[in-house]
Every structure is written in C-alpha cells, then in structure tokens.
Amino acid sequence: MGILEKMRLDGKKTFVTGGARGIGKRIAFALSEAGADVAIVDVDLEEAQKTAKEIAQANNNKTIAIKTNITSPDEVNEMIETILKEFGRLDAAFCNAGIGHGVPVEDDTLEDWTRVINVNLNGTFLTAQAAGRVMIKQGGGTIINTASMSAHITNVPQKECSYAASKAGVIAMSRNMAVEWADKNVRVNTISPGYMATEMTLNDPGLAPLISQWEELIPVHRMGKPEELEAIAVYLAGDMSSYTTGADFRIDGGYTCF
Q: What EC number is given for this enzyme (predicted)?
C-alpha cells in the first residue's frame, strides 16, 4: 500500500466543532475528501446544514449537521449521542470551535474574560472529554484540539490576553489528556495555526488595518490559507499518526521562530 492510500480515512467516523465556516469548514471538507463520515457541529445550525450539504454534494460520504453549544455539558452529551446513533462509533474528534476578544487587559471585564475561557478552554475540554470517553470504551481513537500560535507568543499590535491564556490552556490540557489516555489507545494532539486568511478575518473591517502589520512580522510575509491545515488534520485523524500523541503542530509561517 502506497503512502497516499495509507493516508485515507475510509470508514472513519468524525466530528468537527465550529465546522460551519472558517478553519473548521475546511478541515471538515478535508476529512470527507479523505473518506470519513463527518458531523458538522456548530452553534449556527443553518450554516452547519449548508456546509454539510456542500460536503455531501462534493463527496459520497455521510455528512450531518448538529447544533451544539459546546459550553453546555448536556448539549455536548446530546451531540455525542446523535453521532453514535448516526455513525455507530467515533474515530476522530476535531475540537476546533473558539472565539476571540481583543481588548487591553485593563479594560477587560470578568464577564468577557470568562466568555472566552468558557468557549475556548472549557468547551474544548467538554467536547474532548466526551469524545475520549467514547473512544476509551471502543478501544481507541484520536482527538485533535485547535490551539493557536498565541499560546506561544504575545500578539502585536492587538491585545489578546484572554485568547492567549485560553489557547495555552488547551495545549497544557491536551498534553495531560495524551499521557492519561496513552495506555487506552486514545491519542490527543493540538494544531496551533498562525494568522489565517479566513473569510471572517478578511471581511472584518476592524482587522483590515492590522493585516499589513501581521504580514510584515510573519517571516513568509503572508497569512496562511485554511487549506494549508488540511494535511496535518488528515494525518492526525488517521492511522499514519499512531505514534503521535501529546504533540503541538505550529502552522504559522515561521512566526513563533522569533
């Protein structure tokens, strides 16, 4: 069997949180193109259904949309129940949903700080934990959590204290999960994207003045494309990465080399 055949995900059952748009949508497409059935999990059901329909039309694999608030344990459990009912098992979980809130530390409120931590860290914990419980029972699986280069550096010129703290927490949490579940054949890794040229980023007028500054600081002098995360996501979701756990993959154009 050649290397491309080994990278296939035929028969794998997966989910992607925050899968309706942006990085999550691109990863969901990639998993499906590699042969996996995919559940598009998002708080925006209408957009999730559109994405699921697009993927289903492009590939022959099963794709479903599930509305879930990942900060709610009950909704996360319902999500898992729906996936098991539709797919029968869960082989790979891509815990990707997240938000940002760029304000100076002195102006941040506890409410806003808690909201970012709740979605980015607590939500990732709840979805990864729920996936891990299923995978332990069935004898194995792989979890990929979206962190960020912001966990490794301080962003400039924008102020991202709560976001950076939440993503650093995701990496530490994932490493601990990886060690605790290693003997249960459940692998946990993180992907740390740099600045990505998603539609949301490019269409946000508030970010337009910052993009040129970011690109000047990035060694390759451009933002990343969401599709440049596809290969690592497919690798981590499949059997080719069977010896890879507790790792963090920085896809940032060299930004964190400084």
A: 1.1.1.16
